[in-house]
């Protein structure tokens, strides 16, 4: 088995174990990760070349996904699912932010990221960073990625985790959407997060 194929297999196994360890509780439809993952925190550059941090996106739910613009299938289909879910949420694009973190920053310039995520809606924002910044972020959320062997034209694939981390408006990790979670359950849980944000605490 090639190293890339082995890594792909390990990623699938790890994702299955993670999803099995945090089954939905109560009316939630996605996998709950309350207390299992740290709050949203990073320092990167957005798709307009501006330095940004997690604090810039407080106040509304944030969906965090790692991918790259040359991805042949998974990235575009995942972002399309998220766009479909957000379209079912009251407030739509104004209510949620999606952060698409490039695991291929050498090819994904800010302009390229902006064109790519812009197809899915104004709530989609591309992020890129230095190797150190990217490595710190993937370690924080236990994400794995690896580069394949370049072909004759210098092109290569990147194997990466496919989960979507969902944070509430305070930046707390709440939910994990897997590759088999379609728009409807994602939308249902986003609505619950938004309703919770609007509900005043009990006196």
TrEMBL record:
Gene3D superfamilies: Glutaredoxin. PROSITE patterns: PROKAR_LIPOPROTEIN, THIOREDOXIN_2. Disulfide bonds join 71-75. Residues 1-21 form the signal peptide. Keywords: Copper, Disulfide bond, Metal-binding, Signal. InterPro entries: SCO1/SenC, Thioredoxin-like_sf, Thioredoxin_domain. One of its GO terms (molecular function) is metal ion binding. SUPFAM superfamilies: Thioredoxin-like (SSF52833). Residues 31-199 form the Thioredoxin domain. Cu cation binds at residues 71, 75, 160. Belongs to the SCO1/2 family. This is SCO family protein.
């Amino acid at each position: 088995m090639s190293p890339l194929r082995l890594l792909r297999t390990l990623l699938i196994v790890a994702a299955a174990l993670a999803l099995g360890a945090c089954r939905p509780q109560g009316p939630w439809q996605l996998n709950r990760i309350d207390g299992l993952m740290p709050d949203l925190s990073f320092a990167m550059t957005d798709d307009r070349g501006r330095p940004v941090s997690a604090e810039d996106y407080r106040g509304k739910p944030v969906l965090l996904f790692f991918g790259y613009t040359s991805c042949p299938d998974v990235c575009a289909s995942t972002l399309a699912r998220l766009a479909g879910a957000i379209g079912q949420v009251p407030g739509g694009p104004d209510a949620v932010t999606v952060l698409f973190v490039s695991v291929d920053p050498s090819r994904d310039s800010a302009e390229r990221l902006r064109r790519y995520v812009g197809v899915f809606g104004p709530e989609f924002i591309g992020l890129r960073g230095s190797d150190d910044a990217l490595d710190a972020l993937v370690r924080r959320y236990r994400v794995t990625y690896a580069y394949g062997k370049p072909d004759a034209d210098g092109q290569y694939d990147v194997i990466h985790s496919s989960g979507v981390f969902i944070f509430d408006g305070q930046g707390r990790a709440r939910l994990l959407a897997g590759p088999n979670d379609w728009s409807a359950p994602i939308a249902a849980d986003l609505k619950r997060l938004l309703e919770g944000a609007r509900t005043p605490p009990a006196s």
